[in-house]
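Researcher: Structure prediction, please.
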Amino acid sequence: MYRIVRWTYRGFMSIIGFLVGTKFEERRWASQSSSYASGSTTLNHPHRGFLVAKISKFRKIKNLLEVGCGDGPNLYLLSEKFPEADLSGVDINKWSVKNGNEWLKQEGKLNVKLSVGKADDLESFLNDSFDIVFTDAVLMYIGPDKIRKVVNDMVRIARRRIYFVEWHSFDSQNSLGVYERHWRRNYEALLKELIPENNVNVSKLPEGGGFKDEMWTKWGALIEAKLD
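Model: Predicted structure follows.
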């Protein structure tokens, strides 16, 4: 019975996702309040170490952008690796941005700047603006109506690499997504529409990246796209 209910719900939400799109999630995230410096409480989450280690393989980074940065814990950690680089983040929640900028300044991370912005509104950034562009559990909230635009813009503004920490469909080539509490999709299939297929690498997050969630254990992945 549980499986029947779950599959019925997934099917219903997938249809809603195609019809309604991403607007519901945008409103939900934009209206959420954010406690002061909440990023400091999750700095040591295991998945951040995995992501930061991947990005830190690059010795020379002039700048990078996180799309959906929250109040900036990933950028905090990256600022310690790249103190001379310009690190930027955009997030739909104005309170997260405000609190994050205050927290980062207080911690002396003066090379990090957060701004209010949406994942599907990156037009203000010029082509090849950043060495690296990345997301961390953000695209899983982007529906089929906007995912191609979001990824296309990220490819457009990145010079060297793109990284996604998201739910990846290892067992399907569906590039638009299947809804299962959040959206999971095959990012390799999605990216090969924009860049050569052999330039994309998908790594399963060890032990689900430390998330205590069976879905992260099953689908959690780091997707790397090489652009240079």
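Model: Strands lie at 63-67, 86-91, 112-116, 130-136, 158-167, 178-180, 182-184, 200-204, 220-226.
Researcher: Thanks, that helps.
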